[in-house]
């Protein structure tokens, strides 16, 4: 009883049939917030290309506006569990800032995205709304992807992604581009000697980014879409098939090796893994840390390669060299861990907080099969992306959507459980 009361979300109203796109003004606001969180970078890139320069400060202001709009939707009432998480998170962030001797705002921002969008989905999200949001984003992503592929010269006149990212960070300046006059991001092309993995005869070396501006982010969006589609009880229904097609198409466009490998793993788990065994997936990130540590310690030969196996080796090598202070997040100054996600989260958030937060997520008492699958499959995504990428798990354009989905289905599952318990109590006093 204590667990159920602690995790009790707000009541989620049953969807009412309506010929309108949105059943309420609240649903329309949520739709706009989550879509804006995903597409704000594309909008700023368009402004940067055709109007005026967008620097890092303006991007930060745009993000803060999205956070403020999301917070305005949920701040009137703080559920007991969310108050606990906010308190623990604030204490952890402040304590680590004191131990390091300086403030590192990005780590606080990363946690804000996770907590805020999970909270937003928990309080107000519905599966129908997620379907609408995802359908809108995917239609835009497919349309813009085709535009970038078939009319690249025109596309870069509107979305000069190389200059957009260079204005923010300076990456690519002073000869950092692959070739003179490059208009797409540095990873928008496969370098010579590596080449495209998916349909090179059709797309050449070009990796398409579409509205996500980076092919890595487009591949991540595809994996998130796949997870949402196959977490359903009946994933052969028409809308789920559209999501599956869109995920496959976006992986092909972006030439996402991560998307290809992880999608295959996720589909395999969905097909053969019994629902009763999904709780084991709570151990996935910690098992991966152990695997990477041992893998690198045994097989590392001093040579790194930009391949999937090479990325795993590199992440493991970082873990073998990580001093205790960095495992706990106390090290100062913080080092840049690039594409090594486990090194990034351990040094930024600390091992104790990560253990606590992951335990809290997996202690949410879910009974609905769809919610159990979604949490388990998202855990696989998190486990794998931290193995080969540094901060893309916390990129607002995909993280907001991911945590909104999870918060939505966790709330739906709990309300279903509560309703069933109330009905049983009334029927069998």
From TrEMBL:
Signal peptide: none annotated. It comes from the Bacteria. Coiled coil: none annotated. The chain crosses the membrane at residues 30-52, 58-75, 82-102, 133-151, 210-230, 242-268, 275-295, 342-362, 374-396. The keyword Transmembrane helix applies. The keyword Membrane applies. Keywords: Membrane, Transmembrane, Transmembrane helix. This is Polymerase. It comes from Pseudaeromonas sharmana.
